[in-house]
Amino acid sequence: MSPVQQKVLTELPSLSSDCVVQAKTGTGKTVAFLLPAIQNLLSGNMPPQGKVAILVICPTRELALQIAKECNGVTACLPGGMECHTAFGGTRRASNLKTFLNGSPTVLVATPGRLNDILGEEIVREKFSHLRTVILDEADQMLDDGFAPAVKQILRRIPPKGDGWQGMCFSATLPEEVLDIAKIVLFPGYTHLSTLDRNETPTHERVPQFHISVPTVSQTFAVLSAVMEEEYNQNPTDFKAIVFGTTANGVRLLYNLYRQALPRFQSFELHSRMSQNIRMRTTDEFKTASSGILFASDVVGRGMDFPNVGLVIQLGLPPSTDQYVHRIGRTARAGKDGRAVLVLTERESFFPSINKTLPIKPYGVDIASRLGKYEADITRAFGNVDEVTKSRAYQAFLGYNKAFLKKLQLTPESLVRLANEYASAMGCPEPPTMEKSLVGKMGLKGVAGLRIVSRIDKRRSKGCD
User: Fold this and answer.
1) Does residue 124 form part of some domain?
2) β-pair partners for 21
3) How many domains does the chain have?
4) Residue 415: its pLDDT value, please?
5) Most exposed: 58, 136, 296, 385, by fewest CB within 10 Å?
6) Are residues 442 and 340 part of one domain?
7) Same domain membership, residue 211 and residue 185
8) In the chain, what is the straight-line distance between the N-terminal and C-terminal CA atoms, in Å?
9) Would you state the torsion angle of the CA atoms of residues 329, 238, 245, 57, taken in this order, to the nearest 10 degrees?
């Protein structure tokens, strides 16, 4: 057993005790919460057939699928088996709900949005009448401002805590403010277990971290090429990396671009704009791949275990310090080494300076002197990227950076100029067109530099045309 598994199974007062458990990412937390919850059922607390006894709530569908796979492995040899179902967005609600209602789901692994949605139906709520355990995986994210409202509503729709179900919160990090909110799933006197050694350097501090400041947004693509080549040359054996973009459509652009610009590497993409079947297949393929580059959004930023990833590159301003740290946690797992590189424009370069506790150092190689070769490659590669992909990446760039106007010291007008520079770098002769309604939703109505069309005109216009 890993330390967290041993600690939970030997130090939890009983199989049904409430607990908060902290352990480093990549140390086997999933099995650590599944084993006691399942053993509790086998010890005489099995619910009637068709009733959900164990509910696991986690932030992403990729993590939900990973947990369900672990659950199926743990229960595979049980007499009679034990059905583990999943519920998450991006799938056909009606068919999945029918499978759930007609099946015998003892375990349900779900993301907050879809779970909250289906719990709106009384017939679904009845499935939870004999609930034994509620688990919040990545509990810090489940209880932050983004997910907490949905989690609280879920808890109002399932049997009350007073009915006696067990609450388990598992996470690598649990700030005090999160622990305060965690009481909604825990009775007073809950057990707090941790395998974190206060004298041991946290994973994200042990990983060598570097940043590169790029003068203009148009140079970021060439810089990324140069960094990947440099990192590969330093460690060419089984080179396996994840490149995080800021948006799903931005990730799609990177994937399509670097398949052309760096053909020597096998490329993968994972983001929320892909169908669930393709996301599942890609996740499995990258897990088993000995080498390659995964271009990804934050759907894999937390909890996901991709073996032997030796490098994480983050392109653009991270949404938060916590997310920066969690992305780094995709490398240096299970005792392996890893490196992390952050590529920022000059406007974004404040990030290391406001996070002085993070050991982010300047990149030790003069990348700028190599850009000429890579810029030519990037220009050629962009010629093979379709215009619709470029257009969507442009719109996503505007939407993402609009949220950081103050931090980036931008006005709406200078934001549009920056986005148009981004479009020019993609090889667009003019900025891509945008529907009037979308411009309004972004709060950019009346801002000069945008090419606005009506819905009818938009149908006639494609990408950068």
Assistant:
1) yes
2) 170, 193
3) 3
4) 97
5) 385
6) no
7) no
8) 58
9) -40
Cα angle 278, 280, 285 (rounded to 5 degrees) comes to 90
211 and 79 share a domain?
Answer: no
Phi-psi region of 156 (alpha: psi -120 to 50; beta: other; left: phi over 0): alpha
Whether 46 and 161 map to the same domain: the answer is yes
Identify residue 101 by its one-letter amino acid code: L
Final residue in a domain of this structure, among 159, 194, 229:
194
Pairing, β 83-87 against β 105-110: parallel
One-character DSSP codes across 123-161: HHHGGGTT--EEEEETHHHHTSTTTHHHHHHHHHHSPPG
Alpha carbons 305 and 409: distance in angstroms, whole number:
36
Q: Apex CA 417: angle with CA 411 and CA 419, to 5°?
A: 100
Q: Within a domain: residue 465?
A: no
180 located within any domain: yes
Q: Exposed/middle/buried for 94, CB within 10 Å: 0-12, 13-18, 19+?
A: exposed
Tens of pLDDT, residues 48-81: 999 999 999 999 999 999 999 999 999 999 988 8
Tell me, what's the pLDDT at 173?
Answer: 77
CB atoms within 10 A of CB 69: 15
Q: Count helices and strands (H / E) in the chain.
A: 21, 16
CATH of the domain at 243: 3.40.50.300
Length of the chain (residues): 465
Is the pLDDT score of 465 beyond 70? no
Q: Is the pLDDT of residue 369 over 50?
A: yes
Residue 87 lies inside a defined structural domain of this protein: yes
25 in the same domain as 103:
yes
Q: Which run of H or of E encompasses 435?
A: strand 433-435
* Token pair listed for 429: 């002769």
Q: What is the mean pLDDT of residues 115-137?
A: 97
Distance (Å, whole) CA 269 – CA 278: 10
- Among 194, 213, 247, identify where a domain stops: 194
Q: What is the pLDDT of residue 204?
A: 62
Q: Are residues 342 and 393 in the same domain?
A: no
Range of the domain at 377: 203-382
- pLDDT band, residue 458 (cuts 50/70/90): very low
363 plus 222 within the same structural domain: yes
Q: What is the pLDDT of residues 385-403, one digit of tens each?
A: 999 999 999 999 999 999 9
Cα(318)–Cα(247) distance, rounded to whole angstroms? 11
Residue found by looking up tokens 């067990």 in the block:
166
Same domain, 115 and 182: yes
Dist. CA 303–CA 59, nearest whole Å:
9
**Which residues neighbour 344 within 8 Å (Cβ) at sequence distance 6 or greater?**
211, 212, 213, 214, 316, 317, 351
449 by Cβ neighbours in 10 Å (0-12 / 13-18 / 19+) ranks as middle
The one-letter amino acid at 223: V
